C-alpha cells in the first residue's frame, strides 16, 4: 500500500514535470511585448527577492518588457489605495500583489479576478502545495491567486542571554508556561514582552495569536466561519489572557513600530516578542545572528500542541481584462514554479509555498519552519488578510487600538468590537 | 506713411478694445474650466457617490440609497470618536497658535534689533513638511516615563521637572492635546508674521495722536491698535481653522492611522482605502467639506464686502 502510494507520488511528479515541460513549449504563446505587475515590494529584501523572480521571468520570456509598478509603503498601505482606484476605473495592471485569502474576497465576488484553477492543474501545484493551503485558497471550488511565499505569524522570539539570566531553560509550550516565563523575566528586571502600538496592527497581531492559543486551531477557525461565538466564554478567556500579557509589556509601546519593539528584545531590554518571521529577516540584515542574538520557538498553544502553523502569504492574481493576459499567465507560472519561489524567498526571508523547495538555499530558521510547513496544522492569520477581508481587518485593528489605548480595561467592549469587525467583513 | 497704411492702423487700434474686453475672459477661461471640472465637478461626483450603496468592492449593482450613508455616520462610534478628537485638537491648536503667535508679534512689533533674524527664525518651522515633523515628534513625544523615558520626557526628567512627564499622545484622553503641540510649534511663527504685518499696517500717526491725547501705552494697545487688528485676527482664525479641520499628515506622521488619534480626515482615508467603503468615505469627505465651508464662507463674504470699499 505504502509502496503504491509512493509510486503514485512518483508518477504524479513525473506528470508535473511533463506539465512544466509542456508549459515551456506553450511559452511561445506569450506574444505580449509588455507586462506590468503591481506590488508594494519597493525596498530591501523584498525588492531583491522580486528582482530574482523578475530575472527568472526575463530568462523565460526574453521578448516581453517587464514593467514593475511598485508603490512603496509597508504591507501595501499606499499601494492598496492606488490599486483600488485603478481597478475601480477598470484599468487593471496585468497582475497585482495581494495577501492570499479573504483579502481578495471582494474582488472575487465582483468578478474582477480570473479563475486560476486551470493553472494549478496544468502546473501540478495542487500536488506540491499543502492541502490545508489549497483548501483555504479555494472559494466555491475555484482558486483566484498564486501564492509566492509563506510567512509564519505565530513565532515566539527572545534573546538567549536574557532568558538565561532570567532562568528560563526551555521555550514555553502552553500559556501557563508562558506566563511563568513572563514572571521570570519580570523578576530579572526587564519587561516580559515587547509591544509595538504604533498604528495598532502589531498589537492586533498579538491578539490574533492569543485567541488562537486559547481556543485551539479548530475553534479559532470557527470564529471566521460563524461556528464559534465572538462574545462567548472562550473569546472572553482569550481576551483575559491578552489583558494579562499586555500587563507585562514595555512602557511607551504606543510610539513603537515593530522594528523598535524588536530591538528591545534583541538588546535584552524585553523578554519575549510575538511577531511574524519577517523579524528574523530584519535582524539578519541588521547583522544579528540567529542563536546568539536572538532565537525562536513556535508560539505557545492550547494544551502544548505547538504544531500549529499560523501563516500568511503574498500572492499574485490575474485581473479580468488584463491588457497582457499571456504575459501575466507566464508570470504566474514563474510565481508558482520552484525556480521562481526559490529565487524570491531566501531574499525575502520567507519560505516557499511548495513542499519540494531546495532547502539548501535557505537559512537555518527558514529550514526549520519549512519542515514544519509540511507537517503542521495550518491556520490563517487574521491581521494579514487570510481570514477576513479589508473591512474586517480595519475594524479589527481599530477595536484593538481602542482597547489598548484605553488602558486594556474594557474586555466586554473589545469582544463587542471584534464581533462588529466580523460583521463588517461579512457585509 | 501712405494713406492706406494709416487707415489700416486706425482699424487695428479701433479693434483692440473689443479684443481686450473679451480677451480677458478667454485668458482666464482655461482655469475656469479646470476649476469647474476638477473642483466643483469632483465635488458633485463625490456627492453622487455618497448617495449610493457602493460600500465595498463587492457591490455589483449601484443603487441610490438616499442619505443612508450620512445617517449611518451619526451612529458610527468611530466617526464620532474622530469628530471629538478633531474638536479637541482644533480648540487647543487654534488657541495655542493664536496666543503664542500674538505674544511673539507683540515682542517684535516695536522694531527691536535683529527683528529680521527673529522673524525668519520663528517662521522657519513652517518650511518643514508636516510629515517630516511628524516623524520627529513621534520620537520626541515618547510615552515612556521614569527610567525608560526618552524624548521630551527625558528632557523634563533631566531638568528636574519629572512630575510633568506624561504619556502624550498615547493617553486615551489627552492624545489630541499632545498632537496639538507640534502643530502649534510649527505655525506659531506664521501667526507671528501675520500679526506683525497687521501691526505694520497701522500708521504711526495714530499712536502719536493717542500719545498726544495722553493715553497710556496699555490704552494705546487696547483701544487703538487691537481694534485695527480685527481683520488680521479673522484671517488668522480662518487659516488656522481650515488647517486644523483637514489635519491628516501630521497625525499619520506621528501615530499612523492608530485609533487613539484618528481625526476625520484620517478616518476618511481608512474607510475609503483600507475598507474600500467608497460611499461612506465620500460621505465623510462631504461632511468635512461642509464643516470647512462653514468656516470659510463667512470670511469670504466679509472680505468681499470690505474689498468693495477699497
What's the arrangement of secondary structure elements?
The complex is a heterodimer of chains A (427) and B (310).
Chain A: H1 2-25, E1 34-39, H2 44-60, E2 65-70, H3 79-88, E3 95-99, H4 105-109, H5 117-123, H6 125-128, H7 131-137, E4 138-139, E5 142-143, E6 145-147, E7 151-152, E8 155-158, H8 160-166, H9 175-187, E9 191-193, H10 201-215, H11 217-223, H12 233-246, H13 258-266, E10 270-275, H14 278-285, E11 295-298, E12 308-312, E13 314-317, H15 325-336, H16 338-348, H17 364-375, E14 377-380, H18 390-405, H19 411-426
Parallel strand pairs in A: 1-2, 1-3, 9-10, 12-14
Antiparallel strand pairs in A: 3-13, 4-5, 6-13, 7-12, 8-10, 8-11
Chain B: H1 3-50, H2 68-75, H3 77-109, H4 115-123, H5 130-140, H6 151-158, H7 175-200, H8 204-212, H9 217-228, H10 230-245, H11 249-255, H12 264-274, H13 278-309
Explain this structure.
The complex is a heterodimer of chains A (427) and B (310). Chain A is of the alpha/beta class and 427 residues long. Chain A folds into 2 domains: 10-20 and 31-150 and 313-357, Periplasmic binding protein-like II (D-Maltodextrin-Binding Protein, domain 2, 3-Layer(aba) Sandwich), CATH 3.40.190.10; 152-310 and 381-426, Periplasmic binding protein-like II (D-Maltodextrin-Binding Protein, domain 2), CATH 3.40.190. In chain A, 50% of the residues lie in helices and 13% in strands. Chain A contains 19 helices and 14 strands. Chain A has helices spanning 2-25, 44-60, 79-88, 105-109, 117-123, 125-128, 131-137, 160-166, 175-187, 201-215, 217-223, 233-246, 258-266, 278-285, 325-336, 338-348, 364-375, 390-405, 411-426; strands spanning 34-39, 65-70, 95-99, 138-139, 142-143, 145-147, 151-152, 155-158, 191-193, 270-275, 295-298, 308-312, 314-317, 377-380. In chain A, the strands form 4 sheets. Chain A has a 5-stranded mixed beta sheet, covered by helices on one side. A 4-stranded mixed beta sheet of chain A has the order 9-10-8-11, sandwiched between helices. In chain A, a hairpin with a 2-residue loop joins strand 4 (138-139) and strand 5. Chain A is globular. The termini of chain A are far apart. The model of chain A is unreliable at 15-28 (pLDDT under 50). Chain B is an all-alpha fold and 310 residues long. Chain B has one domain: MetI-like (MetI-like fold), CATH 1.10.3720.10. Chain B is 74% helix and 0% strand. In chain B, helix 1 crosses helix 13 (278-309), helix 3 (77-109) packs antiparallel against helix 10 (230-245) and helix 5 runs parallel beside helix 11 (249-255). In chain B, 32% of the residues are buried. The model of chain B has no long low-confidence stretch (mean pLDDT 86). Chain A binds chain B through residues 80-81, 84, 87-88, 105-107, 109-112, 197-200, 250-255, 389-391, 393-395, 397-398, 401-402, 405-407, 424, 427, and chain B through 55-60, 78, 81, 138-139, 141-146, 148, 150, 167, 169-170, 172, 175, 255-260, 269-278.
Amino acid at each position: 500500500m505504502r509502496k503504491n502510494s509512493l509510486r503514485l507520488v512518483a508518477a504524479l511528479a513525473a506528470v508535473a514535470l511533463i506539465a512544466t515541460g509542456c508549459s515551456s513549449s506553450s511559452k511561445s504563446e506569450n506574444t505580449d511585448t509588455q507586462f506590468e505587475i503591481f506590488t508594494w515590494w519597493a525596498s530591501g529584501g523584498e525588492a531583491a527577492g522580486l528582482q530574482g523572480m523578475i530575472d527568472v521571468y526575463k530568462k523565460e520570456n526574453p521578448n516581453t518588457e517587464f514593467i514593475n509598478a511598485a508603490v512603496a509603503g509597508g504591507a501595501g498601505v499606499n499601494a492598496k489605495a492606488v490599486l483600488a482606484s485603478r481597478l475601480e476605473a477598470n484599468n487593471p495592471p496585468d497582475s497585482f500583489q495581494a495577501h492570499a485569502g479573504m483579502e481578495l474576497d471582494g474582488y472575487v465576488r465582483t468578478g474582477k479576478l480570473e479563475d486560476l484553477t486551470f493553472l494549478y492543474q496544468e502546473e501540478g501545484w495542487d500536488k506540491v502545495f499543502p492541502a490545508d493551503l489549497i483548501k483555504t485558497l479555494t472559494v466555491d471550488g475555484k482558486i483566484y491567486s498564486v501564492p509566492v511565499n509563506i510567512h509564519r505569524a505565530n513565532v515566539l522570539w527572545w534573546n538567549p542571554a536574557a532568558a538565561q539570566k532570567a532562568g528560563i531553560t526551555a521555550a514555553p509550550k502552553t500559556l501557563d508556561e508562558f506566563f511563568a516565563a513572563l514572571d521570570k523575566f519580570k523578576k530579572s528586571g526587564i519587561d516580559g514582552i515587547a509591544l509595538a502600538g504604533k498604528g495598532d496592527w502589531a498589537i492586533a497581531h498579538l491578539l490574533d495569536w492569543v485567541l488562537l492559543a486559547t481556543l485551539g486551531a479548530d475553534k479559532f477557525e470557527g470564529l471566521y466561519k460563524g461556528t464559534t461565538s465572538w462574545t462567548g466564554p472562550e473569546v472572553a478567556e482569550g481576551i483575559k489572557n491578552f489583558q494579562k500579557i499586555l500587563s507585562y509589556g514595555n512602557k511607551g509601546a504606543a510610539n513603537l513600530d515593530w522594528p523598535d519593539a524588536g530591538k528591545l528584545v534583541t538588546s535584552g531590554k524585553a523578554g519575549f516578542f510575538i511577531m511574524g518571521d519577517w523579524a528574523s529577516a530584519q535582524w539578519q540584515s541588521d547583522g544579528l545572528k540567529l542563536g546568539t542574538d536572538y532565537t525562536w520557538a513556535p508560539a505557545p498553544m492550547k494544551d502544548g500542541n505547538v504544531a500549529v502553523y499560523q501563516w500568511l502569504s503574498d500572492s499574485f492574481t490575474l485581473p479580468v481584462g488584463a491588457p497582457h493576459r499571456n504575459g501575466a499567465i507566464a508570470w504566474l507560472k514563474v510565481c508558482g514554479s520552484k525556480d521562481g519561489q526559490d529565487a524570491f524567498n531566501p531574499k525575502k526571508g520567507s519560505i516557499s509555498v511548495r513542499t519540494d523547495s531546495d532547502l539548501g538555499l535557505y537559512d537555518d530558521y527558514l529550514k526549520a519552519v519549512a519542515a514544519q510547513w509540511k507537517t503542521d496544522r495550518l491556520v490563517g492569520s487574521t491581521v494579514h488578510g487570510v481570514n477576513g477581508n479589508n473591512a474586517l481587518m480595519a475594524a479589527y485593528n481599530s477595536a484593538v487600538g481602542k482597547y489598548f489605548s484605553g488602558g486594556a480595561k474594557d474586555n466586554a467592549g473589545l469582544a463587542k468590537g471584534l464581533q462588529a469587525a466580523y460583521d463588517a467583513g461579512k457585509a | 506713411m501712405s494713406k492706406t497704411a494709416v487707415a489700416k492702423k486706425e482699424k487695428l487700434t479701433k479693434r483692440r478694445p473689443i479684443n481686450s474686453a473679451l480677451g480677458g475672459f478667454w485668458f482666464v477661461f482655461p482655469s475656469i474650466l479646470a476649476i469647474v471640472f476638477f473642483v466643483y465637478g469632483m465635488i458633485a461626483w463625490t456627492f453622487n457617490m455618497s448617495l449610493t450603496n457602493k460600500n465595498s468592492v463587492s457591490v455589483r449593482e449601484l443603487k441610490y440609497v438616499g442619505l443612508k450613508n450620512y445617517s449611518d455616520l451619526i451612529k458610527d462610534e468611530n466617526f464620532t470618536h474622530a469628530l471629538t478628537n478633531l474638536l479637541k485638537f482644533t480648540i487647543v491648536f487654534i488657541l495655542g497658535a493664536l496666543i503664542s503667535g500674538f505674544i511673539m508679534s507683540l515682542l517684535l512689533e516695536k522694531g527691536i534689533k535683529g527683528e529680521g533674524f527673529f522673524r525668519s527664525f520663528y517662521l522657519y518651522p513652517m518650511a518643514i513638511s508636516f510629515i517630516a515633523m511628524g516623524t520627529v515628534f513621534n520620537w520626541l513625544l515618547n510615552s515612556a516615563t521614569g527610567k525608560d523615558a526618552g524624548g521630551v520626557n527625558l528632557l523634563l526628567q533631566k531638568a528636574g521637572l519629572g512630575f510633568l512627564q506624561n504619556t502624550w499622545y498615547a493617553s486615551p484622553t489627552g492624545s489630541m492635546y499632545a498632537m496639538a503641540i507640534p502643530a502649534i510649534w510649527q505655525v506659531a511663527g506664521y501667526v507671528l508674521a501675520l500679526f506683525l504685518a497687521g501691526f505694520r499696517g497701522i500708521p504711526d500717526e495714530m499712536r502719536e495722536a493717542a500719545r498726544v491725547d495722553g493715553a497710556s501705552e496699555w490704552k494705546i494697545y487696547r483701544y487703538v491698535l487691537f481694534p485695527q487688528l480685527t481683520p488680521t485676527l479673522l484671517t488668522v482664525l480662518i487659516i488656522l481653522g481650515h488647517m486644523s479641520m483637514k489635519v491628516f499628515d501630521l497625525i499619520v506622521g506621528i501615530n499612523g492611522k492608530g485609533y487613539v488619534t484618528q481625526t476625520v480626515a484620517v478616518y476618511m482615508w481608512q474607510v475609503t482605502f483600507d475598507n474600500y467603503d467608497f460611499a461612506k468615505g465620500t460621505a465623510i469627505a462631504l461632511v468635512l467639506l461642509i464643516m470647512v465651508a462653514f468656516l470659510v464662507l463667512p470670511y469670504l463674504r466679509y472680505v468681499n464686502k470690505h474689498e468693495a470699499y477699497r
